[in-house]
Amino acid sequence: MAKIKQDSKPVRLGPLVAKIIFMSLLAAGLGYMMFVAFLAGENLIGGVLALVLIASFVVYSSKGLVPLKFLLPGIVLLAIFVVTPILYTVLMSGFVYKTGNEISREEALTQIYETGYVPDESFTAFYMTLGSYEGEVSALLTDQMTMTPYLGANGVATELGADQVQLDEYGTAVGFEGFEPIGFDEAATLEAEIIDLRFDMGEGKFIRPESLDAALLMIQAFTLDGASGELYDSVNDITYVDNGEGNFVNKANPEEKLFPGWRAFSPLENYVGLLTDPVIRGPFVNVFIWTFSFALITVATMFAAGLALAIAMDKPLRFKRFYKSILILPYAIPSFMSILIWNGMFNRDFGAVNQVLGQEIDWYNDATLAKLVIIIVNLWLGFPYFYLISSGALQALPGELEEAASIDGASPAQIMARIKLPLLLQILSPLLIASFAFNFNNFNIVYLLTNGGPINVLAGETAGATDILITYAYKTAFGSAEQNLGLASAISVIMFFIVGGLSLWSLRRSKVLESVI
Amino acid sequence: MKRTNIRSAAWRHIYAWALILFSIFPIYVVIISSFDPAGGLASSTLLPQRFSWVNYETLFTSPTIPFMTWIWNSSYLAALNAILSIVVGAFSAFAFSRLRFKGRKTGLQTLLLIQVFPAFLALAAIYVMMERIYTIFPAIGLGSHGGLLLIYLGGSMGVNAWLLKGFIDSIPMELDEAAKIDGATPFQIFWQIFVPLSAPVLAVTALLSFIGTFNEFVLASLFLQDVNLRTVAVGLQSFVGAQFGANWGPFAAGSILASVPLVALFLFAQRYIIGGLVSGSVKG
């Protein structure tokens, strides 16, 4: 057989030009972003962009690597926007990361030092003459006690000899070679700049302007002992120690914290809190139990209603098409909209539900009723889906089964209960598990309907009666009182395990993973 | 025998009617409310008494409710996400289905596992990550449509790739073998054979993706603080959630306006969507 010769294939110009344009745009876009990222000091983001840029060049300019040409965009998207957040969640769950502990240790120390500047013990003060020296805002300073003159310029205070400066009648230094005094009016316009002036005196001391003609010698009250890691407050004579949870605390009284704190790496802290700290564990356990019960009950009710409908409509029936087109409506309406509509309809005073019932039931203020509302509304949203899949599965069952059973004398009810139902359950079990996993994380139904309530905030409750894990994590992370991103991440990690385990189990059962071809 | 048949048929009709009443109850209420000029939940009644278009007018004219902007935001975000995630997903699906390479099976299994995690589970991490991106690239960081779209894309691409792979697997191998002999490159096979053949499937997958994104609430509410950038889900929730009583009428009108196109789309593509449902994608 003759070998097909492909080498002489003519090069088509169109695709080549398109490829060059595409590559240039990609290089320009990514390259620019990379540049901006590195310039802003975000080396991680810059590095990722560089990696993407290099990878796309290697993949798209080579002749081979055909599979990667198709896969690269998907890989990049999944890696950056799905896998990274998941891994980052795991990482964050190992940190004390909440309101008051949001910044890095260095930033926290800087801020603590900011609060630690105090005048020295003898309240050394200086007369100050503002001016400019070498083009910078500077000051001539004279110690009010010793009358020693200093030049404060470029962030440093330099002691001057008495013969180098011109003095006024009170002995205050007012002139120096190269120093151009400025008047009060001009100084007033530079006020913002002057407030920020610091002239270093060495040994942690510096001179800071207090007004336009006076300055104080400041010292740092805090000293950090590099070896022991202890922070000593020399003014109040308190020793602070790192408590390992992102705060310096008083050595004598560990409850007394120094603010701000920082994100401290403490891998098990959040998980231990969830299991042992009664303040966190209490609501968490309740939420956990309700999440499971909600997912189970809601799937069971939706499936029961949908299946019953499928069975009812399985026989030839008058108006069947008409019924079907109406019964599918709840499924077709955007669900967030339906939930908001139902929310208004369960309103105690004016809601349509109470009007129909002729009652004044306060649906949202009672834990059991609020849960019932969620189950009912989710039933409304979900039964059409279960009707559709059940009737699809019913029709897929082989007709011979029914024939054989009825020849053997089984009643239609028996055929349904003993033959069709078990088969249906088997066919639909992956979808039932998927629906369980979906409702396990059904943020919309809870958040938009009851917002997790009822909740007694005054009693210090952090989770409402209808909060499920995902809404609880959302409130934990972005609540109004305290934002605890570390704890929220720990809850997310637990949800990852549950959802992942459930899906893995389902995939194993249906042998999808093994049958991947 | 005849009698039991009638009785059983009666039960079937009664059950169907019970569910029909349940189904149309909120739809009925919302239609009535949308035409009630009083506008508040307080004045709403079960039987229509007045009729006016004033709630609809409010939606289009009120400066505090940029309803049309919200609808536009939702629509274009959902459409862009649907199209882009289908394109990227189809590329991946084609590679997994038709090309043979090392690590293919592992790649597929990884994809299958990753796509079971809904994106919003990692919400705290996404927030911190996008906040950081915002400091250098405001257009794709927190608070922007660009950033939200990227997160949506990452989340829906895996599912779509998985759905499409199932379909491409069912296209006979002989087709691309013939094309290969004719000297077609893999990209030509993809573009000239698979895309036209899978057009209906691509459309339905895109539609499902569109509906999914249109309904998305968590990430959108996390991302979009600016009133004019909100999606219709976040916007309606924010304006109706605060004071149900006062805004009920305009809300009812808005929900009808926003629902009608989607319901029409859904009913139009019903047959295909239901096929897709049974093969594994879940909503509800």
Can you walk through the features of this model?
The complex is a heterodimer of chains A (517) and B (284). The N terminus of chain A is likely disordered. The radius of gyration of chain A is 36 Å and the shape is elongated. Chain A is of the alpha+beta class and 517 residues long. Chain A folds into 3 domains: 78 residues; 104 residues, D-maltodextrin-binding protein, MBP (Periplasmic binding protein-like II, Beta Barrel); 189 residues, MetI-like (MetI-like fold, Orthogonal Bundle). In chain A, strands 2, 3, 4, 5, 6, 9, 10, 11 and 12 form a 9-stranded antiparallel sheet that branches. Chain A contains 18 helices and 18 strands. With 284 residues, chain B is an all-alpha fold. Chain B has a domain of 181 residues: MetI-like (MetI-like fold, Orthogonal Bundle). Helix content of chain B is 75%, strand content 0%. Chain B has 13 helices and no strands. In chain B, helix 3 packs across helix 11. Chain B is globular, with a radius of gyration of 24 Å. At the A-B interface, helix 1, helix 3, helix 8, helix 9 and helix 10 of A face helix 1, helix 3, helix 4, helix 5 and helix 6 of B.
* Average pLDDT level of chain B: 83
CATH architecture of the largest domain in chain A: Orthogonal Bundle
Which residue ranges of chain A are poorly predicted, with pLDDT under 50 across at least 5 consecutive positions?
1-8
Termini separation of chain B comes to 39 Å
Number of strands of chain A: 18
Question: What best-fitting shape of chain B do the alpha-carbon axes yield?
Answer: globular
Helix content of chain A: 40-55%
Topology of chain B as a string of helices (H) and strands (E): HHHHHHHHHHHHH
**Helix/strand class of chain A:** alpha+beta
User: What is the strand content of chain A?
Assistant: 5-15%
The main pleated sheet of chain B reads as: none
C-alpha-based Rg of chain A, rounded: 36 Å
